[in-house]
Input
Amino acid sequence: MVEVRNVTKRYEGKRTVHALRGVSFRVEKGEMVATMGPSGSGKSTLLNIIGGLDRPSEGTVVIDGTELAALGDDALTRLRREKIGFVFQFFNLLPTLTARENVALPLHLAGRRRRDAALRASKMLELVGLREREEHLPDELSGGEQQRVALARALVLEPPLVLADEPTGNLDSTSGAEVLALLQQLQQQFDTTVLMVTHDAKAAAVCHRVLNMQDGQLV
Amino acid sequence: MITLLRQISLPELRRHLLRNMLTALGIVLGVAIFCAVRSANTSLKLALRDTIDAIAGKAVLQVTAGEAGVPEDALETVRSVAGVRAAVPIIEAVVRTTDAAQGNILMLGVDMAGDRSMRDYRIEQGNEEAVADPLVFLAQPDSILVSGEFAARNRLASDSKIELVTAVGPRTFTVRGIMTAQGMAKAFGGNLGVMDIYSAQFIFGRGRSFDRIDIALADGVTVDQGARAIEARLGPGYKAEPPLRRGKQTESLLEAFSQGLFLSSVMALLVGLFLIFNAFAVNVTERRAQIGILRALGVTRGRIQRLFLGESLILGALGSAAGVAAGIFLGRGMMLFMASIVEQIYGVRVFVDRLRIDPFWTPASFLLGIGASLAAAWLPARAAARVDPALALQKGKFQVLFLGENRRRRAIGLALAAGSLATTFTPWSHDLKVQTVVFVLLFVSLTLLVPTFSHLLAVLLRRPMGRLFGMEGQLAADSLVAAPRRTSATVAALMFSLAFVLIMATYSVSVRISMMQWVDSAINSDLFVAAGESLSARTFQFPASFGDELRQVPGVRQVDSVRILILNYRGTAPMLVSIEIEQYLRRGQPLLEQGRLRDLAPAMSGRSAVLVSNNFARLHDVGRGDHIQLDTPAGRHDFEVIGVIVDYSSDSGSLLIDRDVYKRLWKDDRVDTFDLMIERGYGADAVKREIQRRFAGNRHVFVLTNQDMRGEIIRLTDQFFALQYVQLLVAVVVAVLGIVNSLVVSIHERKREIGIVRGLGGERRQVRKAILLEAASIGLVAVLLGIAAGAILGYYVINSFGAAINGWVFPYRFPTAMALALFPGVIAVSLVAAWYPARLALRLPLVEALAYE
Output
């Protein structure tokens, strides 16, 4: 599903920062993989590059048979829309849209009709246990609830790959456990490949495999 | 505090340089116009005073009898008043030479026998005898003296010839002496000439009158004592006042003109206020984390508020400084423009060639800009002080700092609007002070109501936007609905600019239509023969006998004599028009608001009865059956108001009396214009040509057909509205500025949102389209609200505010064509304005937009 080949990322400035140094690995379809490592090890940078949010300085990334380097910006965007779902540490919900509207947003971007999008979003919220809160704005939801909405949004188009950056990093242990359980359940239900960045050992424990990073390299 | 400003504020200001510059531009424009107008006004006033002062010489009092002139026999009366040491007659006229390159010259007609006691004549070149011995001057009636500057500019020397346009046609004069460039010779920008007064009477058509008498008083006699004694001896109808006070009427004309331009500077500043408010509100939201850190480190709420106010002070100071500089740059053009307008409309020529910086208003403009900036930033600064540090330091938490919608605000807005509009039906509807306050309250009420109505319109747009433009339209509409604070500030700025455009257009359309209706009824002669080159310039008059000469012209059936004066009535300057009333009423029917047509001729012919204009009636609260007193050279005289007519000749009002009554009371039989009716079978153009041919060379005549006259009135009206069109341009520029600035700020505020949408798979073209549609929607909402606000404010201005200024109440006519044109215009401009901000937004690296660690 995901193949990373010799990916390097440098930030040129007064001093050159090597965020990633020749990282290579594969993730198979249906796997749930955790990436762990100390702050500054390059975990999030790696996730951004796999998700097409950033480009590597060297190396290639292949998602479901498509090499990202060969894609222009629009094609990369479409790939992100159709094949990748994102879950961020700080939720990144649009503050002016309700829970249902946030979940429906990827459907709108994909050109789905408004009514169909609303129905599908409501179903996803039901799956994550938030149907009764679908008209609430993000600041009216708890952290755990916001992350569940983000999960619903990430999976609403049933993408083959979900990238989660510290999904429990901003949650208390109870909420975090709930979100993890939900992630696991949805991963199995939709047979989604999940690549997660985390500091949380409990989160890593639910994964099939753990990749450890340090100083921009897999160790 | 200085440390915080240096370490926190200055880097922030530098970081968003483009945005801050755009924000400050509203202040720049407002201050620039204000400064330019005040400087131009000051320059014109000072130029006028310089001329009056230079010519006055040793005169401490000047006696006038209004525009009718002072009869010759009044001179001896004045000389016989105890305390008067010297009294000399003066005629003053600005004339042009036949050589256009030489320009205008202010000619003084003086009695050389006595004038040397009043003014210094220093001859640097020429015949000293011409000045020393007045008989030399009298013996050579073509003699003139010119100022050194005029002579040098036009390469004139002693014995040079110069041809002037006079009431009796072009006349050649001989330069007998050139005056040194000091004192009197510096008046009117150094373009001064002196001639014999009796020659001046003839060539300027003054008949047996002078323009004024200059007076020097005996030692020990104060100006007040002298003035009282002279006025008591001469009677009402005469005024004795210090020279500079004579210019007050012209200064008040200039001031009235400046008021109009002052409005546009206020408008620009108000829109600048909204722009700054919006920018600072976004700034505070963006810097929540920074504020949280500062609070956590021990910075008090008060210091946070002062920090943000300090930033607005810096922005305001920079904007004001740029505005003052721009104002000085624009001031010269404004000065020449105002001088031209005042000459065209009021016939007053002021020579002005350099801009004088007003020592009070220039720094005042600077402070005004700073004040506006601080006022606009006040609420955001207060919101910054209220930021909860605990919330602010938690990433992902969102604290609502500004409410876009508020029931109490809405209720206050509605109450203010209803109360303001209700005053149009009260006795205070024409009180200028009350209506100025009401206008401000109306503005405030509309500001308070903008969030409600813009939100409502945005909700209504949601479905059609989704239907017409798909997902992008829906995203755009959702963004409008979901962000009322952001949207309403932008909409308010645009709305007021557009409302201002519509108010001006309403006034212009309403005035024009009413004016044309009046012209159809009032301008009913076939030909008009004037002594001056424009309707407003009354430099020359005809002798009454010229009417007999005109009657001899083939094709002329009827000749009516019209004399026009500007009076001084209760501190205002209405126009007095005298005409042979029976003939006038036979050839046309004035539009009457009060009175009956059939009663007018018998009541007015040879009798002390007057028709007043509608605005005079309103300004002075008089009507049919009332009596007014007018000061005439024959004394104060009572007139019965016999009717009220629709008349747009003068914004201070006009009065119509029978010519015989005028001649008797004002002792003046001169004529400004002859109105001619021609025989059937004769063409107006043919008779016009015959008149011009017959009198060319021996009389200066300016002949207009009825068609020409209508065109001239339209031209004068257009000149007046040229000023308004300048304001329209300012309003449009500020409106465009408002869109660009607000969208740049809005898109910057939504950087993260845009990043999220892109991260979720929104393509660039989708996001760009959504941003453009949002901009077009803002434009559409602003146009709809602007039309509503413009209709309300326009109605109010026509019926109350405008009437309080000049007494005219024009029938309200909404400028439909202009309003319809606003839709495509504003939407197009919104789209263009959004293009660059959209590009900016889409260029952001996604990772940065999503604000990772």
